[in-house]
Amino acid sequence: MNVARAFALGAAVAMLAGCAATHRPDVERVATAFATGDPGARCALLAPATRAAVERAGPCTAAIGTAPPDGGRVSETSVWGDNAQVRLSGDTLFLTRIGGGWKVAAAGCTPNGDLPYSCRVEGP
Amino acid sequence: MSGARRALRDNGIGLVFGGLFLLALAGQAVAGQAQYNDQQVAAGAEPVSLLQFVTTSTFAVDVVENWQSEYLQFFLYIFFTVWLVQRGSPESKPVDEAGTETDEEQEVGEHAEADSPAWARHRGWRGVLFSRSLGIVMGAVFALSWFAQSVAGWAAYNAEQLGNRQDPVTWVAYLGEPDFWNRTLQNWQSEMLAVGCMAVFGIYLRQRGSPESKPVGAAHGDTGETG
Question: Which of A16, A22, A51, A83 to probe by mutation at the B interface, max B CB count within 10 Å?
Answer without folding.
Answer: A83
